[in-house]
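Progress report, Aim 2. The chain analyzed during this reporting quarter is listed below.
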Amino acid sequence: MQNDLDPLILDLLEWIAREPRSHAEVIDVWRTSCPRLTVWEDAMDRGFAVREHERGRETMVRLTATGRDFLRAHGRVANVNVTADAARSGAPFAGGRIAAPVYFAHCAI
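Predicted structure tokens for the chain:
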């Protein structure tokens, strides 16, 4: 069964797979004030990504095997090797950030 947020969750997972991402970066880029768009929370609840804590280092986010399988099952590539500039400029990203209309256009409370 497909969740209405699956396309955005797939975008998030694919973005995380492109290069190492800090938790702070993920939250900054994927934050939304819309209570109906819980992309980050749903991805974590479904076991698609985990936070990794290492003493003295920034908390990082990585895909789990379940997250990679979810990407593959939906025709997405789990380990994309692209430059950081290309990863930041690719759709649906605007300058490395998710454009606000992606979130708020679907937010109807």
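The chain has one domain: 6-104. The CA atoms of residues 30 and 40 lie 7 Å apart. These observations will guide the mutagenesis work planned for the next reporting period.
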